[in-house]
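[Structure tokenization] protein backbone as discrete codes
[Encoding] learned vocabulary of local backbone shapes
[Protein] chain in single-letter code, fold in tokens
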Amino acid sequence: LALGRQHLRELLLWAGGLDGAAGLLLFTVGFIVVSLPCGWGYILLNVAAGYLYGFVLGMGLMVLGVLVGTCVAHVACKRLLARWALAWVQRSEKLSAVVRVVEGASGLKVVALARLTPVPFGLQNAVFAITDLSLPNYLMASSVGLLPTQLLNSYLGTTLRTMEDVIAEQSVSGYFIFSLQIVISIGLMFYVVHRAQVELNAAIVACEMEMKTSLVTGSQPSISGSTTSCNKRTVAFAGGGINIV
């Protein structure tokens, strides 16, 4: 980003000069690309939307673009990349635990919390594609989980626009206010991510303890009740050689 900042600025200015429909289409395609497992640049698109269109319009563009991108990525991964994603998840104890919890009673909560963690957006879409969550519930949980960081990123985008005005005016008070805004935004971001990681880890630990108890007692976790943290996928992963402890 530092090396290509001039080209990036020119690209943003070009995108800002497009009419409404063309800009919407451009950002929608961009969000579809970054939603795929190999995609990158989700946060950059968030900040760019706030920079070009302001806080309110930038938020609307983000919500719509991410919703379309997540839906396309979920369907594509489920139909075309499910076998690859399953093999990849089974090689990671952490991801296997996340899948088990997602398919339990706390699934929607875990999806929302995972969206607040720094795990790449496209990789999360690949992991969630192999779960048994319905598409409407998955999109709803994803939208709720992504909302806090979208608000912060859109606000950061507007402060970058403010930074250009500050540099042009060479105002000391403007530099101070801008720096304070950046510090507060980054602090809020770290707090949100930290709280999400704590809650997500707690849900995973609860699932692992339930699975460990069921293995010791020789019974399988219940999949019919609403209070269990894990689901039938727990047995499948355990049978595949995953180290539960």
The chain has one domain: 12-215. Confidence is low (pLDDT under 50) at residues 220-227, 232-245.
